[in-house]
Every structure is written in structure tokens, then in C-alpha cells.
Amino acid sequence: MSEREPQFLSVGEGAAARQIAVRHEPGKAPGVIWLSGFKSDMLGSKVVEVARAAREAGNAVTRFDYSGHGESGGAFVDGTISRWLEETQAVFDRFCTQPTIIVGSSMGGWLALLLALSRKHTGNVAGLVLVAPAPDFTEELLWKEFPDDVKHQIETTGRYERPSEYSDEPYIYTRELIEDGRRNLVLGGSIDPGCPVRILQGMQDADVPWQHAMELVSRLPSSDVTVTLVRDGDHRLSRPQDIEGRLLPALAEFGVGQAVRGAERSGG
């Protein structure tokens, strides 16, 4: 099935206005909204499979690209956690008007937590599924790990470019991204999103160590939080056994999608 054209939602005003590309498919509750990772978009393998599973089962599904990503407007170097959270909240408020499962991958896991905390009062946050979640990554996984010369470069030039193993284009980390990240940190205290949480984490993840996921778990309420550690899993967790064997079943626990697709195909 080819992808339908996205619709566009205007977020921000004046010079900060940007057009956010959204693909929303109405359906029954609970719906699902996908929050992508840093430099990832809504056409990645995991989100496409999640959208297909939700669509086939009749669940509503919403996905979008942050500004500077994919089909959305805006420049990537202007991106910050606050800016991308504003877009996430705008999409959620416009399209997720029924109980919804928030799925966040990598940076999207951080935004999922911030979204859940900010929209808990609506009653529409029905659960969180976090894949290699990276809350506070700008501080804990970037700034604290950067050598002094890189920190100096960011402080004096405003940016640092690091080659990416996932793209021909480098990752660009700006001073504003780091400084804004500090205004959105969540790991300094208790985090109560007010809903069940499922976490999938690869133990061979070179970008977000599995210990980071466990630090998040220690901040969550003890009830109804499940962590699945994948011993041979990497950061993406995009292999068929990861998507069909772990991600889709996690969503099925909440009533999104169907049973394990691989078992269905094999007659199991």
C-alpha cells in the first residue's frame, strides 16, 4: 500500500511558524500516535508497521514529522526539545481526541513522557510504549560525554557536527538544543505519566545504553511498568523479530492492532 499524501498543521506564529506534515487515519479507540527519534521520520520501518497493524484492526493512528524532519517545514538546526514538543502537543490536541497510546522511539521517548505529563488531565493518554527511550539525552548522553574540545566548539561556534552511521548527513548539535534540553529534563525526580508503561530496550544499543532505560524505570511508579531487555538488540530494534515479536505485541496489550503477525503468517 502506497503512502497517502500528508495533511499539514500550522504550528507557531510569525517567524516561528512552520508547517507540520501529519498522516492521520481515523478509527476506534484506543488510537496510537507515533513520536519519532532524532533525525527520524514517519516513514521508518517501525512506524509503518505500527500504522499498518492499527489500520488493519480499525484503530486510529496518527504520525507526523517534527519541523526540520521528513516532509515538514522548518530547518533542522532550529530544532529544540521545546519546539518539537510544541509540535507534538499541537498534533495530539488536534487529532488524538480519544484514549490514545503514545509510542515514542529514542528522542520520541523523551517527548512521549513530556506529552503524557502535559496532557494527563485530558484523560486521553491511555498508555506509553517506549522504544530505546532517551529522556534527557542532550545532557546525559551528549553533553556529559562530549570531550572538552567539543564542548568548547559548541559554546564558541554554536554547533557541532558529528558523522552519523544512519545517514550521509551528519548529526548537528546546537548550543540552543543543549541549553533548551536543560529546561525539559525529567530524570531528576519522580515521573508519573498516569498510565501503564511498556519499555523495549536493546542491550547492544550503542546510542542509548540499557542502563539509561533502567534509570528511567527507577523514576516511574512501580505499578504497571514492564521492561523488555533484548539481549542482542541494537538501538533501532527494527528487525522483524523486534517489530513483530515485541513492539506489536506491546501495543496489542493495550488493544491496538492484532496478535503477533509472524505467528499469524506461519499458521501458529
Explain briefly what this protein structure is:
With 268 residues, the protein is α/β, with parallel strands linked by helices. It is built from nine helices and ten strands. The strands form two sheets. The chain has an eight-stranded mixed β-sheet with strand order 1-2-4-3-5-6-9-10, sandwiched between helices. It has a two-stranded antiparallel sheet with strand order 7-8.
Q: Could you explain how this protein is built, in words?
A:
- Helix content is 35%, strand content 22%.
- It has helices at 45-57, 81-95, 107-119, 137-143, 148-157, 175-181, 210-219, 240-252, 261-266, and strands at residues 7-11, 18-25, 28-35, 59-64, 100-105, 125-131, 159-162, 171-174, 197-202, 225-230.
- An 8-stranded mixed β-sheet has the order 1-2-4-3-5-6-9-10, sandwiched between helices.
- The model is unreliable at 259-268 (pLDDT under 50).
Short descriptors:
globular, disordered C terminus, 9 helices, two-stranded antiparallel sheet, 8-stranded mixed β-sheet, 268 residues, alpha/beta
